[in-house]
Amino acid sequence: KAGVTQTPRYLIKTRGQQxxxxxxxxxxxxxxxxxxxxxxxxxxxLFEYFSETQRNKxxxxxxxxxxxxxxxxxxxxVSTLELGDSALYLCASSLxxxxxxxxxxxxxxxxx
Amino acid sequence: xxxxxxxxxxxxxxxxxxxxxxTYTDSSSTYLYWYKQEPGAGLQLLTYIFxxxxxKQDQRLTVLLNKKDKHLSLRIADTQTGDSAIxxxxxxxxxxxxxxxxxxxxxxxxxx
Lengths: 112, 112
Hints:
The complex is a heterodimer of chains A (112) and B (112). With 112 residues, chain A is mostly beta strands. Helix content of chain A is 0%, strand content 54%. Chain A contains no helices and 11 strands. With 112 residues, chain B is mainly β. In chain B, the strands form 2 sheets. In chain B, strands 2, 4, 5, 9, 10 and 11 form a 6-stranded mixed sheet that branches. In chain B, strands 1-3-8-7-6 form a 5-stranded antiparallel sheet, with no helix packed on it. In chain B, strand 7 and strand 8 form a beta hairpin.
């Protein structure tokens, strides 16, 4: 069974631009969560989607948004990028909400 | 909010046992997890324990849970250089809309 796939693997953007990251969960998994990982803040929860609905949201500004499609694939979007958005963005899927998370390798975003 | 705390670093010699400790504050935690993150990769679920268990063993890994003290530990027997990574402790209630809370991670360094 294929794992969680995130694309792209690396991304370099400049301040003010926007970016879209993609995540394909493990087949059959209906819940997709997104996390931001930085050396200073550790792993911070962004949001969780289940059956195309955002069920939970972390404490991030409205520049961070996401969606989930009917095939459970998910995208997250960050608009008006800031230097502080540079981080590893991790996607995780689980069979149901609140169950064991399986992570992708992440997208390393650098904002210059 | 709930907190999960871990020490930041642990250094051991190859062949020795490693013990990584974690404390959490939410007494209603149902699941407690250990994840491993190697450089440039996402988090890999190593093992987990239900809150009604005291111990779980899985090959070289032993998880001990002290619910009274809200203390979780991960013991790695016969530690190898390939075990060098960051280890994250996480807790969740499971089901519903509760999102796992992660610790900041413990960097395990294994010396030859």
